[in-house]
Amino acid sequence: MLYINCPHCGLRSQNEFAYGGDATVKRPELNKEISDQEWDNFVYLRKSPRGKHLELWHHISGCRQWIKVERDTSTHEIFKTYKANEAIE
Amino acid sequence: MSQDFRLDNVGMVNREKKISFKFNGKKYFGFEGDTIASALIANGVHLVGRSFKYHRPRGFFGVGVDEPYAILQLDRNNERDPNIRATEQEIFEGLEVKSVNCWPSVNFDIGAINNFLKMFFPAGFYYKTFMWPPSFWYKIYEPFIRMAAGFGEASIKHDKERYEHKYEYCDLLITGSGPSGLASAYAAAKNGARVILAEDKPRFGGSLLTSDVNIGNQTGVEWTEKIIAELKSMPNVTVKNRSQVFGYYDHNMLVMSERISDHLPKTQKYLPKQRLWYIRANEVLISSGSIERPLVFGNNDTPGVMLSSAAKEYMKVYGVLVGKKPLIFTNNDSGYETAIEFKKNGVNPIILDTRSNPSSDIITEAKNLNIEIKFSYVVVAAKGYKKVKSADIAKISDDKKELFNIENIKCDCICVSGFWTPSIHLASQSGNKSKFNEKIDAFVPDKSKQQENTIGSANGIFTLEETIKDAFDKGFDVSNKITEKNNKVSVPTVVEKKSTDHDKFWCVPLPKGKSYKRFLDFQNDVAVSDIELALREGFRSIEHVKRYTTLGMATDQGKTSNLNGLQLVSDIENKVVPQVGHTTFRPPYTPVSIGAIVGREVGKHSKPTRKSPMHSWHEKNNAVFVDAGVWLRPRYYKQGNEGLFEASKREAKNVRQNVGVCDVTTLGKIDVKGPDAAEFLNRVYTNAWLKLPVGKARYGVMLREDGIVMDDGTTTRISENHYHMTTTTAQAANVLSHLEYYLQLVWPELNVNVVSTTEQWAGAAIAGPNSRKLLMKLFSNLDVSNEGLPFMGYKEADLFGVPAKIYRISFSGELAYEINVESDNGYFMWEKIMEVGQEFQIQPYGTEALSTLRIEMGHVAGSELDGRTIPYDASLEGLVSKKKDFIGKRSLNRSAFTSTDREKLVGLVPIDKTTSIPEGSYIVKDPKAKLPNPKLGHVSASCWSVEYDNPFSLAIIKDGKNMIGQKLFAMSPLKNKTIPVEIVSSHYVDPEGKRVRS
Asked: What ipTM does the predicted assembly reach?
């Protein structure tokens, strides 16, 4: 069970969190004309990297904040966690 | 039966307390502190089971977790427990155990015929035999394999025992209380670290209990007792026996199962049977010790052949002789300790040492004790069927290939020692890649991946002096890292006689003309010949060899067999062991009962139960409840002999004719507040929200980004910047997460807050033509006329002194209102509604009547919004704004979503007007068409229309828009029904929607 450092609450066990997928995906702006391809990329296409991955976690049984977690997908090592609005190093 | 093999005044069992127990129906005696194994051996019983495949007789091989043979089934306090290791289970008064995998009895087992047919059961025989003909699989092969599979029978009864989970945090977890565990725990605890020391056995000390050593001028046992007593007295130390750390997971989370009551006749009051500990440790020291490695020779599975360390432990801990004419077969000094122990207890052993000319203090001692030692000697084969009676022994050449002078000597047990295998399971589970240590011919942990270190013999350190010194250092080092203190304790002096020299020899060659089975995996009956066959057939990867032969796949997970298997493969392939590699170690290290894993989350505790504030009223009024997510909702209120069908019909009819009241507390409620709330809702919902006036509600549909409908519900503008959103019961939590996602990550510039208020409000929907009359009486000072409180209007009012919110919304399609009060006032509100509603023939209605009402009206719910439908499919396209953008809008332009013949919501009426259409039925044109019959759609919801008194269903069918009036068939292969139906509009009742606006 992962031990995730919520930037708002501190170290908490994984069972307080829900996984939220790739944190680098950016939603296209509203009212912007975009191609089918671009939209499909946003809705469906995700990379599944082995190694470092920036991902979203929702502290659902805690502060209810969405946070960003930089994690190694093969070793589960967590390098850093960020608040939703924090700049990524 | 008397305990013929019990020694006087030796061992640690409590001689004052005699305990009786039953094995296969026969009564035996042992002492408090005995295991089933030690007590049976004391009584001269060695035949306890039958092997898995060949049903060969099985005795005891080890003395602890590594036991591959003595798996029994236990009855304790009317509970049945299979897969009990006799070497671990302590006896208690009234214990009953029986053998498994044998019929009719362990002494006479029909299945043993497999042993004589063994040429037909080579490795992989399942794959070869059960392939053809294919039709045999279901009828013959599978039932046969099912019958033969497994050890013992699991109980199908509800387990009445209690199991608990515990979460614990510590600086340092130490797994095993042998010399290294004790030393490191002591050093770390003295340096201020919070330590948990876990021991799997009832007694602390590990190898110190049985080895003839001296630490700080004390015997191993005395030193153990001193250290344990001191550790127990320290407030920063938790010491646990009967506790197995069985799994090492991510981020230094380890799981331990503590057997609290398994050794007692009955679980004590206020205590669980077992407790599962989730331990998050800053640092871990793995001191899990090592397991003796067997030597492989002919018929080495005969009862009476066992590990020499086990024989020694039976003597020293339990005061039990495993035999009176022992043969010790060893390739190292450990066998000598066992021999000396036999000799001290008046039994004359013979040592066969594979080495030609070894020397050490302990060998000298054995010689001085006049123990007969034969160097360069091996056991060729054990003789005897149900128990060893003699052994063929031989002199072996220096290259270990030739056997000379084969002779037969009498013996009643053969104690084998093939040196030691470190237990690296936990280290390996932590992600540590192991490395092969040539000196000890075994794998040891390599570089740490997590915060762990392995110490003592688990790390391949086999001398006590080095072990103790290293463990004191490691205990100090890791505690210093955590506490930054420098309190160092002095390392005691250590005296030990045996050396760590051993012979690189594990498998005795077959003599010419003999074909003895030489077993590697004792539980799964994997012999040398099976491995040879697998390699001949082309299996190379050790993982493939394992799966093909089942080597190491039994419940003991190959604790005694893996290394010998690897050695054999590398010998045949002319490789070295590290080239062959080893199979993956996975948790659990030992079998864990399912009860312990589940803990308290059984029955109604498996998930929380949520009840509305009116729950007790529903109970008192004969409500029959249904699960709605974690909520309990009244399905119907039973009157007299009514069933679901009659009751729901009555309730729904009463809503259409008079007035009904329904508990709608469970609906999700979310407060949306802030200056940008309107803009936010406008982006979340498909329809327009910017112009909704204060005091008005609006129905809205929200999509996922892929265009699929996520949820629907009404949202009311309470004040300028305050909206009250409702969601369906099932989607409440998802919708909240969804809103938080967009507010926190996508549009953080929007100044909006959302919070769940589901539990803050109790809700009652009153519906039916009489509902306004009822409302007038409930709120006498309020203008509830159609002008004062129009459809989709909202008012705050006073309900007999209680503040209430009234929303004029309707799910039933009737004139209806929803009243919300603070949860604490819910019961009061409900009683008032029932009391005042009396004169208008009010009746409560449950979810079944609610369904009927909404289906008749063609209102969609979860069964239509099933995660596959876009707004068009559910006939919600009118709510999709063309002007503004919203979540998921871009997806609706995808070509599949704009195609004109998409499946669409329609109504169905059976042609005969009497046959109900099962939900889930397929809609087809021709019921007799060749399979696969083209499917036009499916029935999503069915009811008995109370308006027209005939069955009515909703269905989602291809090109539904143009299908109205067509006659098709609803087929339910599951219910074996084919029903001719007519497609009608989904708005079966009041299609113009006059009633809700009346």
From this structure: 0.98
